């Protein structure tokens, strides 16, 4: 009788342990995104992309034989809320890595949390300050604002433009890109003759653009910014009949920008963007073509809305993370961090990623494509 009781107890204990092991057979990944608020046009496709890809990965066996469990929060673009969620992801959800920080502001707010807790973090925001200086556990997928400046100035230089006006958003991204552009513009023998700014909530930039228009020496205008501001600038630009080339940042590289600005007003606008916006125009042998076509087909098939550059940032972040786990053979945060830093030749929607201890972005300037709006659609600049 005693022997039967021991055996029964042992079996029950073994079953309980087996069930507990099965229940814990998951890899916990976190995300804090701006799915609502002023940056929702960035965060919404990022959230949809992560959910879609996690479902796809789990349907195909997961990672390292385990399913991914995604803990995702909407910070609404508020840095304080993002920091609260970052802490929750670590303390309550016990995630091993985090993707997010839709904006520069939210990213910068949560970086200290992940660095202190030694959790790998892949940001989806643009400012160079996110990865310069390099921090051990912080990475990102979008090109930096400094790279965007360089790509734009290269194009201006090729067109013989030497004198420009700038009108920049005063938000975190706009202010950062403005500063980066001013730091390197002299390297391209280009002079800034007007330097105007606007606040994120401004609904009319006519006064600033009128100031720029009044300077007859200006040959082109650059608008570092994201959100609705650049669309308003573009509409006001057309209303004032400013007959000069207008450049925007990669922060508005989406079909949504054309819709907000209006196809007629946006005609001729140039900006540095990714292969994702011109998937069907890529060469057949372009290594990015199969990647961007597959993501575009999956996303648009699932959501019946156009794919965006910003969702592509999330796509690449998850691919980098999963690739690192598979190469490390582990979901341990330290092992994953080390493997992310060793990412080499990974083809994503934004470019081919090769990171190092000194480079937590892993993209070159060649990953940018110079795009122009023609007949209401994005085209590649010849």
UniProtKB/TrEMBL annotation:
This protein's record includes keyword Transport: yes
Signal as UniProt keyword: yes
Keywords: Amino-acid transport, Signal, Transport
UniProt-listed Pfam families: Peripla_BP_6
InterPro entries attached to this UniProt entry: BCAA_transport, Leu-bd, Leu_Ile_Val-bd, Peripla_BP_I
Signal peptide from the UniProt entry: 1-25
Start and end residues of each Leucine-binding protein domain: 26-374
Family of the protein in this entry: Belongs to the leucine-binding protein family.
Protein name: ABC transporter substrate-binding protein
Species of origin: Plastorhodobacter daqingensis
């Amino acid at each position: 009788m005693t022997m039967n009781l021991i055996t029964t107890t042992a079996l029950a204990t073994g079953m309980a342990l087996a069930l507990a092991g099965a229940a814990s057979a998951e890899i916990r990944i976190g995300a804090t995104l701006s799915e609502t608020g002023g940056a929702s046009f960035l965060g919404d496709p990022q959230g949809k992309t992560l959910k879609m890809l996690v479902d796809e990965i789990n349907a195909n066996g997961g990672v390292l034989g385990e399913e991914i469990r995604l803990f995702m929060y909407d910070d609404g673009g508020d840095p304080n809320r993002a920091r609260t969620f970052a802490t929750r992801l670590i303390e309550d959800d016990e995630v091993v890595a985090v993707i997010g920080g839709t904006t520069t502001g939210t990213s910068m707010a949560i970086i200290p949390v992940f660095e202190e807790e030694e959790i790998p973090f892949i940001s989806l925001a643009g400012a160079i300050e996110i990865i310069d200086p390099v921090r051990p556990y912080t990475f990102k997928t979008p090109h930096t604002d400094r790279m965007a400046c360089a790509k734009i100035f290269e194009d201006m230089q090729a067109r013989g433009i030497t004198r420009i006006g700038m009108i920049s958003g005063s938000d975190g991204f706009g202010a950062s890109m403005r500063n980066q552009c001013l730091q390197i513009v002299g390297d391209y023998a280009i002079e800034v003759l007007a330097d105007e700014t606007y606040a994120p909530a401004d609904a009319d930039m006519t006064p600033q653009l009128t100031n720029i228009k009044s300077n007859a020496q200006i040959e082109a205008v650059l608008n570092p910014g994201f959100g609705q501001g650049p669309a308003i600038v573009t509409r006001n630009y057309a209303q004032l009949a400013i007959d000069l080339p207008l450049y925007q940042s990669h922060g508005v590289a989406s079909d949504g920008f054309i819709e907000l600005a209006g196809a007629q007003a946006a005609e001729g606008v140039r900006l540095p963007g990714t292969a994702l916006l011109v998937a069907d125009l890529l060469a057949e042998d372009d290594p990015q073509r199969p990647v961007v076509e597959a993501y575009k087909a999956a996303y648009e098939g699932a959501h019946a809305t156009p794919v965006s550059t910003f969702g592509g940032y999330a796509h690449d972040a998850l691919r980098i993370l999963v690739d690192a786990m598979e190469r490390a053979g582990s979901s341990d945060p330290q092992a994953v961090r080390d493997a992310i830093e060793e990412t080499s030749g990974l083809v994503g929607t934004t470019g081919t990623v090769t990171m190092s201890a000194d480079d937590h972005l892993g993209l070159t300037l060649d990953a940018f494509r110079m795009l122009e709006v023609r007949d209401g659609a994005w085209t590649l600049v010849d």
